[in-house]
Each structure stands twice: as structure tokens, then as C-alpha cells.
Short chain dehydrogenase (Acetobacter malorum), 254 residues
Amino acid sequence: MEKRAMTQPLKTVLVTGATAGFGHAIALRLVKDGYRVIATGRRQERLDALAKEAGPALLPFKLDVTDTAAVQALPASLPEGWQEVDVLVNNAGLALGLEKAWETKPSDWERMIATNVTGLVEITRALLPGMVARNNGHVISLGSTAGTYPYPGANVYGASKAFVEQFMRNLRSDLLGKQVRATTLAPGLCGGSEFSEVRLGDKKQADAVYNGTKAAAAGRYCGNGGVGSRTPRACEHQHRGNDAHLSGLCRSGG
């Protein structure tokens, strides 16, 4: 994708969960394509490393999406010149465990809901009023094929991604007549990130998840045709209607 013409106003994009995986790759790709990026995450040292790699067009901002008070205060907490967010990329999310529903830890379910559902809703609610007031904006949320296709052990994780799908559909309905778009990206099985290691708590078990599959690497598929390239492309097409859903950007299978 060609860089944006510098005669156009630079869009400011806020990416949640930018310290690893898709979020990290999306943030770098957006900067490369000429956007200003507010990269948020919980790990300050990773945010600092990302800012060093990306340069002055990226603002590192420590934020835990499960901290409701901090999320609600976000618009006013951003530095001057960064407070008008044009595009929100709801990337922060996680999966924990692969146990059957009756064997899971309630704390794992609570954490997934707090991050994948409540955190996404709260930050959307915090930034959406400004977009609507300016009649200009875009909310992009990462769902998952797990929100549509069931598999053993996906119980609450899959349900949380199904919530993302339906929330974004309803958001599009609310936004009819506004120049604010709502887009869902639904990747499939993707390697090359810490996602499965966080889920299983063990690198060896995490690597075994991809045995017998051709899983897409997060970094690679933030190149041509994948999540990272689709994200800035979605930003460009902001005024071509407000309904978009892109699924299976990373494919599993033999």
C-alpha cells in the first residue's frame, strides 16, 4: 500500500494491545503508511521499544483496558495534539486455557471477559462520542473465526469473540447516517506471537498448537493482504458506507 499523501491531514489512530502480536505489527504498519499512532498496552518497556523503532509518529501510552476508570479518563489524559482520535483499533484481547468448560478456572473466564468484552466496550464508549461529534471516525475491532466456528476448549474465548461480532453489527446500526465506520477483522489461527504461550502458560505446549497446520505468522500477515495491511486500508475507505466484516485473514489447515 502506498504511503498517504502528506498534503492530507494525518489521521490519528489509537491501537490497543500494541506491545505484541497483531497490535505491534499493526502499529508499525500504520506508521509506515503515514498515520500518527497512539500505541497502548500494559508493558511500558515494550511500548518504549516500539516507540524507538517507529519514531516520532508513534506515541507510547500505558493503558490497561481492564482499568475502567483509566479508560473512561483516556480522552482527557492524552497529550495536547493527540486528543482527537480518528480511528480506534480494538486489538487488545487474550485467550486463557483449553480446558473443557467444567474444568476451567473461573478467574480465567473473568479475565477474558474483562479484556475481550468489557475493555473493548469501555474504550469504544470513551472515544466514540468525539468521533460522532466531529462526524468523522472509524472503529475497527479484532474478532476471530473462533467467534463463528466452535472448537473444544474455546468456551468463553469463542463467546467473547462472538460478542465482538454482534456488538460491531449493532454499532453499525447505531451509526447509520453518520460518517463514522465500524469494521470487524476476524483472523484465524496465527503463529509468530505470544498468544498461545499466554493461553497455555508453556512455550512447548503453545508450539504444539500449530502442529499439522499452516498457521500464518502475525508479522508476515501484517504485510500484503493480512491484518496489518487491511487495517490501514480500512482506514482509507472510511466514507464508503459503514458496514464491513473481513474474516479468515489468517488461515489454518494443511
Summary: Confidence is low (pLDDT under 50) at residues 221-225, 249-254. The radius of gyration is 17 Å. DSSP finds nine helices and nine strands in the chain. The domain at 12-247 is CATH 3.40.50.720 (Rossmann fold).
